[in-house]
Every structure is written in structure tokens, then in C-alpha cells.
Fold this protein.
Amino acid sequence: MTVPTPAATADAPFTPGSRALVPDRAAPSRRLAAFGWSALALVAIGQVAAIMMSPPDAAMGHTQKIMYVHVPTAWSAFLAFFLVFVFSVGYLWTRNDRQDQLALGAAEVGTALTALTIAQGAIWGRPTWGIWWTWDPRLTTTAIMLLIYVGYLALRAFTDDPERGARWAAAVGILGFINVPIVYMSVRWWRTLHQVQSTTSSVAPAYRIGLLVNVVTVTLLTVYFILKRAESARLERAADAALEQRMLGGAAAGA
């Protein structure tokens, strides 16, 4: 009969040099890193190909080509906030920390993408509209969306109890998602300076493939960032738990 070694025993005590309680996560980390680098390379290739292949727009000239980054960024922000909604519901239903970590990752990435969307829109708006910003319904609702998720992140950051903060943030993530379809439909519901959103079915054939390729590649990069941030959140919480356990152990030994 084979006697299990400490490394093969799940509940073996940790000692310096022991690998019993250190799971091998190198392979998943390498796969995630490879996925991230591949997604980034595809984004770069997609941007260059779209810009090189498409002709200047008759009205806007080369300014139109910001569409290849602006539309995918906005779409990916919507996707990220939808995932916040899904994972928030999942967390409240199951109290599974993995769901909360993914919600946090999606919220951070979505907030960054929304800020980029507004900045890109301003760069496009200046030569097209003659102004950097106007209180157009699309721009205004997008700014409100950004503030909602900045508030989501602030709530998590300033709540001392992580579990309570996760519950409160999940509620904000669910309710805040109500604004996402409002942003999307704003150009259809109200008279607006902003044009109706560009899709692969609404643009001219010369721009369709480039737009589709960049939507797909930026989406892949967004998924990578969400997974990476969720993994970072897991490691942060594991480190906090280990530190707390060590401090409690030291206090017990001192007593």
C-alpha cells in the first residue's frame, strides 16, 4: 500500500518548502496570458486592416475611421455591464465568491471602456460637430452610466465589510443595468445630434468587414481583462485571508 506524501494530502499542515497547499495554477495563468496576448495582437491587426482597406467617407473623410475603435469600445462596455448584472444576480443567489469577483472585474473593465467611449466620441465630435461635448441624450445617458459604475466601485472600496460591500454592490449592479438599454435606445427615442448607432447591417459594405472584425477582437480583449481582473481579486482576497489567519494565529500564540 502506498503511503500518501504530504504533497498528496489535502489537509496536510503547511511548512516552509511544502507544496501541499499550493495548487499548481501556472498552466491556467499561462493559458490566460496567451489568450490576452493573442487578443491584443488580433485587435492591432484588425485596426490596421480596417483602416487600410476602407476608403475615406464622403462626408467625414478619414475621421469616420474612428468608428473602428469607438463602436467596438461602446459595445464591449455594454457587454461588460450586462455581465455585471448576470454575475451580481448569481452572487446574490449563490453567495459564490467567484461570481462576485467576476462582477467586480466586469465593472472595472466596463467603467474604463465607458470613459474611453466618451473620450473617443469627443475626438470624433470636435471635427464633425464643431464641439467636444454637448448635452445630447446619447452623451448625457452615457455620462450617467459612467457615474453609476464609478459609484459601484466607490461603494466597494469604502465598505469595510467585504461581504456586505459585495451584497450592496450587487444591488447597484442589478439596478444600474437599467440605464444600459436607455443609453442604447436614446438615439431612437429622442431627437438627438448623435447619429443612430452603427452596426454591421447599417454601414456601407466597404466598412462592414472591418467593423465586424474589430467588434469581435475588442470583445475578446474585454473578456481577457475581465478574467484577469477577477483572478487578481481572488488572489487579493486569498492574501488578505492568509494575513488575517496569521495575525489571529500570532495573537493566540501570544496569549
